[in-house]
Amino acid sequence: MDVNYGNLRQLRIDKRLHLHEMATALGLRTAGGYQRIETGENELKVKHLPAIAEKFDMGILDLTDQLFFRKKVEQNSTIKEVI
Questions:
Q1: HTH cro/C1-type domain: which residues (predicted)?
Q2: I need a surface site. Which of 17, 39, 73, 83 has the fewest CB within 10 A?
Q3: CA 3, 6, 39 angle in degrees (round to 5)?
């Protein structure tokens, strides 16, 4: 799935959380480590989602709805006869 890193950053800003606070919550050593996640330079890991949701006062499902793009899939059905 594609991550909407802009929403990740905006959610943090809306909650008035500093990069260092987020880094600490995720067990990262530096604020820059978290910033690289927000910019997409480093991959957002699934193991970080519970800590992020907690810092944002959100449930995991609400967080994932905000962070992940949903790809629209067109369904073209054709009936094929199996012989």
A1: 8-63
A2: 83
A3: 80
From 3, 52, 64, 62, select the one nearest 27 (Cα to Cα): 52
Q: Is 40 left (phi over 0), alpha (psi -120 to 50) or beta?
A: left
Domains of the chain, with CATH numbers?
5-67 (1.10.260.40)
pLDDT tens readout for residues 23-80: 999 999 999 999 999 999 999 999 999 999 999 999 999 999 999 876 554 555 555 5
CB 11 within 8 A of CB 56: yes
Residue with tokens 């996640």: 37
